[in-house]
Amino acid sequence: MTPPHPERPDVPDGPRAPGEPAAPDGSDGPGDPHTPGGRSASAVPGGRVPPAPQEPAGAKGRGAAEHRALKSLLGAWALTACAPQEAAAVEEHLGECDDCAQEALRLRDAVGLLHRPDSLDLDPGLRARVLDSCLERRPPRVPVPEWAAPYDAETARLDALLQDIGDGEWHAPVRLRWFTDEGAVSRRTTVAGVIAHLLSVDGLVAVALGLEDPLGDLGARSGRFSPPERTEAYWRALYFPPTRSVRAPWREQSRALVRTASLGGADTADLSVSYGDFEIPLPDAGLDRAFECWVHAEDIARAVDYPYEPPAPRHLHEMIDLAARMLPLVLAARRRAGLAPPARHLVAAGEPGRSLRLEIEGQGGGQWLLPLDSPGAVGSAEHEVAHVALDGLEFCRLAAGHLAPHEAAAGQLGDREAIRDVLYATASMSRL
């Protein structure tokens, strides 16, 4: 018995003999003039019926309609735009049909040509924008304290930079610069050495939060080491020059600092951090570490020829505000050391006295009235004797020791001696 036609069960699958009449129901058999080929058996020389077009090998065992449907999905499959069920059906079909498998390979190659090899370097501000958007939709369960946000952002940005550099670039030379009583000084190290420096000084905050000191027993024996002394001790204790392996403990420590401060809530803001000869509140120490992380990230970026953007304006403003609040204390310390003229007047704490207006322009800017005669005095517009205007980034580079006081392009008005004292006090806040 002849098997039924795969598409029409009432039509036999074998060819009819020459001259055999068409099916009684008028269906388009091989002799029908309305066949797809448009020719009857009598129109073919010799009376032979031409063979029907052969479906591809993959169509055997499947309906021709199913084969055509799966073939039509090859373009979407190459673009990974198929539904999971469709993709599974196409891939099963490719294992059976050589023609479709070759076509799928060509389409996948073409899709690869559509994608340009764009740079994988991300916009440094992308993380902050994504986080801002996420936090607007759903606040975190354990919010990061406001004072820790700049440190969290700057360590994340530096870590992204470190992730992009190659093994050899970890040994690229970096020159650290700062300003002392004798003038500008510098120290040569490597990219890995800079991260080791950040790790050791961030350890001061770690100890204040009850975390492990990265210097270990050396930190316990060091007592009240200042930040530069901690760095020198840590560098000397290393058996070999630092390598990229220093990145992991530095990043883990920075995350632990933010995590511990977040879980501690408002109580952590009352802690103090020892810097050797003095102590500062933990929120100010967090801003100080964020500032130094940014400054040294720029040092590293310059060494490996990599672009690096300034901090977010709100974080930059907080860093500038910390420096402005510290300036009266630094100026008083310089006077005690004989590096600045003595105060002209004795002003009691909380009383208004001679003041200098510090105006910071650009991103993160603002205005501060700095008391000149006593750190405990109150800045007063009525007692303003000088006015200094600086760009925000230039002020930060002056505070980092990357710019000499006499090189600062400052707009100056009023008492020249007071202006000079404040500019030199700003530069002397820098350190290794």
UniProtKB/TrEMBL annotation:
Residue ranges, compositional bias (Basic and acidic residues): 1-13
Keyword terms, alphabetized: Transcription, Transcription regulation
Record domain Putative zinc-finger: where: 71-101
Positions of the Mycothiol-dependent maleylpyruvate isomerase metal-binding domain: 152-301
UniProt region (Disordered), positions on chain: 1-65
InterPro entries: Anti_sigma_zinc_sf, DinB/YfiT-like, MDMPI_metal-binding, Znf_put
Superkingdom in the source lineage: Bacteria
A Pfam family that the UniProt record links to this protein: MDMPI_N
Gene3D superfamilies: Anti-sigma factor, zinc-finger domain, dinb family like domain
Identification of the protein by name: Zf-HC2 domain-containing protein
Classification of source organism: Bacteria, Bacillati, Actinomycetota, Actinomycetes, Kitasatosporales
